[in-house]
Specification:
The chain is mainly alpha-helical. It has a domain of 74 residues. The chain contains 7 helices and no strands. α4 packs across α7. The longest helix is centred in the middle third of the chain and has 19 residues.
Length: 110
């Protein structure tokens, strides 16, 4: 993904993590992280996007996520757990309200 290695490319001028926070991009994001591709800031955006994916799938109006949302959140949490040092490295890029929901599930101090 050329975006990850070119600082001049962006998906939006802000909120790139919200655009990327979609399961269809997960494999590409994992590939970038695992192959140490991409600029540090872009890798941080990917970690942030993955945290947003968890947040979006566990936070529901009635606090009871559907089985599909639960599966999606568990999958991303599993992938974040495998990359916990990266999550810690980029934790300051993750919004506070997202940290409060996601980081306890990863056993990361807020």
């Amino acid at each position: 993904m050329e975006w990850a290695s070119d600082a001049s490319l962006y998906l939006m001028s802000q909120d790139e993590e919200l655009v990327l926070a979609n399961e269809e991009y997960l494999e590409t994001m994992l590939n970038i992280l695992d192959n140490e591709q991409g600029l540090p800031h872009k890798r941080g955006i990917i970690i942030e996007a993955m945290c947003v994916m968890v947040y979006d799938n566990v936070n529901t109006i009635n606090n009871t996520p559907s089985p599909e949302r639960t599966r999606r959140a568990e999958r991303v949490l599993n992938e974040l757990t495998k990359r916990k040092p990266l999550v810690v490295e980029y934790k300051n890029m993750v919004m506070d309200y997202v940290q409060k929901v996601v980081f306890p599930r990863l056993d990361i101090a807020i």
